[in-house]
Amino acid sequence: MDPASAPSNLNIANALTVLRIAGVPVFGALLLADGGESIDLRVWAGVAFSLLMLTDRIDGDLARRHNLVTNFGKLADPIADKALTGMAFVGLALIFSGDRFGWLFWVVTVVVLLREWGITAMRFVVKKYGVMPASQGGRIKTTLQAVALGGYILPFELWDNTTADVLRVLTHVIMAGAVAITMVTAIQYVRDARALRRESPRRSGVTHQP
Question: 13, 59 in Cβ contact below 8 A?
Fold first, then answer.
C-alpha cells in the first residue's frame, strides 16, 4: 500500500481498541470487589466484560469496512483481547481458588496465558519480517473464551438449582473447547511465523528497487 494512501492510526477502530485496553482495570475492579462475593458487582462485571468484548467485533468490522486497517491495529487488537481475557482468567482463578477444583482453573489460566502472551511476544519478534494478523481460528478461540468466561463471571447463584447446574456444565464444556482451540492455534501461529520469517525479503536478502 502507498504510504500516502495508508489510513491514519488515529481512527475510530483503533480508538475502540485503546478503549478496550483502558477498560480492563475497571472490569477487574468490579470482578474482584468484595472478593468476588457480591452478586450485584459480578453482574456489573459481566456487563462491562460483554461491552468491552463487543468493541472487539465492532472495531474489526469498522476497520475492514472503511479501510482503516493499520499495523498498529493488527498488533494492538490482539493485545487488547489478551489483556481483557487475561484479567478475567486471573480474577476468576482468585475467586474460585477456595473451591474444591479451584486448582484446575489455575492450571487452565496458566496454560492459556502462557500461550497468549507467548504468541504476542512472537508477533513482536517477527514484526520486522511482517505483521501477523489474527487468523480465523484465533477469532473462534477468542469467541469461545469470551462465552466461557462470561458464563463464569455471572454468578450461578442468579439461577435456580437446575438451571445453574445446566449452565455450569455447559460453561465447562465451552471452556474445554476454548482451551483445545487455544493450543491448536498456537501451533498454527508458530508455523505461520516461521513461514513469514523464511519467506521475508529481508531474510533472503532481496531488496526492492525504488
Answer: yes
* Class for the domain spanning 3-200: mainly alpha
68 neighbors 9 (Cβ within 8 angstroms): no
The domain ranges of the chain are 3-200
Q: Which residues contact 139 (CB under 8 A, 6 or more apart)?
A: none
- Report d(CA 181, CA 112) in Å as an integer: 10
Residue 125 burial (10 A CB sphere; 0-12, 13-18, 19+): exposed
- Distance, in Å, from the CA atom of 189 to the CA atom of 139, rounded to the nearest integer, reads 13
* Beta carbons of 28 and 85 less than 8 angstroms apart: no
Query: Residues 130, 199: contact at Cβ < 8 Å?
Result: no
155: left (phi over 0), alpha (psi -120 to 50) or beta: beta
Q: Which of 122, 46, 108, 47 is nearest to 78 (CA)?
A: 122
How much is the pLDDT for 201? 66
Enter the C-alpha cell of residue 179.
482451551
Distances (CA, A) of 48 to 30, 122, 126, 173: 8, 29, 33, 24
pLDDT of residue 105: 92
Alpha-carbon gap, residue 168 to 206, rounded angstroms = 55
* Banded pLDDT at 101 (limits 50, 70, 90): confident
Nearest to 46 by CA among 151, 175, 191: 151
The answer to whether 31 touches 88, Cβ cutoff 8 Å, is yes
